[in-house]
Amino acid sequence: MDVTTSIIALVVLAVAYIIASLSYPMLAGGAAYSPTPREIAAEALTLADLKKDEVFYDLGCGTGEALIEASKVCDHVTGVEIEPIRWFIAKLRARKAQVILGNLFKQDISDADVIFIFQYEGRINNRIAMKIKAETRSETRIISYWHRMENMKLVKSQNKIFIYKT
Ligand SMILES: C[S@@+](CC[C@H](N)C(=O)[O-])C[C@H]1O[C@@H](n2cnc3c(N)ncnc32)[C@H](O)[C@@H]1O
């Protein structure tokens, strides 16, 4: 293989991986990647009144924006991400958080006080809502950025940040 062919092969592989990394989360029942702006993540955590001794999860943590902000406030921060490159970046960036490579639908969240999600309304958020209702305590607060959740009590909202309780 000459140099030009090798470069073309590498570019094709890189493009194929990027396409796969965007579509794979959707096959696993979640949203593709779009990061929450850091100032919005900080605002969401203030709105949800996250406290130091509470347990925080970001289900589908991407590259770790909400994890970094949550780690400034709270000692028990966990992110779950299904896509390996984003998981690795989140692990490098959110050093104080536990960052798990896995499927959010398989994560034990029974100890959660605050859960952050930025997924999609409709079928995906409904499925996540069912999991949260089945596994968490009634006082658990759920932050959904951008998309609303059905069958949950809306407690507060501002700037496309929706805070719910089950
Ligand atoms: C819209 S992004 C939000 C990223 C991050 N929470 C933020 O707000 O910056 C959604 C993320 O969820 C991840 N995801 C989708 N389905 C998932 C699943 N079933 N398990 C774990 N992560 C998932 C995607 O790979 C993507 O990184």
Helix/strand layout:
Blueprint: H1 3-27, H2 38-47, E1 55-59, H3 65-73, E2 76-81, H4 84-93, E3 98-101, E4 114-117, H5 123-135, E5 141-145, E6 153-158, E7 161-165
Parallel strand pairs: 1-2, 1-4, 2-3, 4-5
Antiparallel strand pairs: 5-7, 6-7
Helix pairs in contact: 2-3
The structure holds S-adenosylmethionine.
S-adenosylmethionine binds next to helix 3 and strand 2.
Bound molecules: S-adenosylmethionine
Number of strands: 7
Uncertain residue ranges: none
Strand order of the largest sheet: 3-2-1-4-5-7-6
Helix content: 40-55%
Please count the helical segments: 5
What does the oligomeric state look like here?
single chain
Q: What's the CATH H-level superfamily name?
A: Vaccinia Virus protein VP39
The fraction of residues in strands falls at 15-25%
- Number of self-contained structural domains: 1
What's the N-to-C terminus distance? 59 Å
Tertiary shape: elongated
The CATH class, by name, is Alpha Beta
CATH architecture: 3-Layer(aba) Sandwich
Order of helices and strands: HHEHEHEEHEEE
Largest sheet: 7 strands, mixed
Mean pLDDT: 93
Verbal overview:
The structure is a single chain. 40% of the residues lie in helices and 21% in strands. It is an alpha/beta fold and 166 residues long. The protein has one domain: 3-Layer(aba) Sandwich (Rossmann fold). The protein has a 7-stranded mixed β-sheet with strand order 3-2-1-4-5-7-6, with helices on one face. Helix 3 links the parallel strand 1 and strand 2. Helix 2 (38-47) crosses helix 3 (65-73). S-adenosylmethionine binds at residues 25, 28-31, 33-36, 58, 60-62, 65-66, 80-83, 86, 103-105, 118.
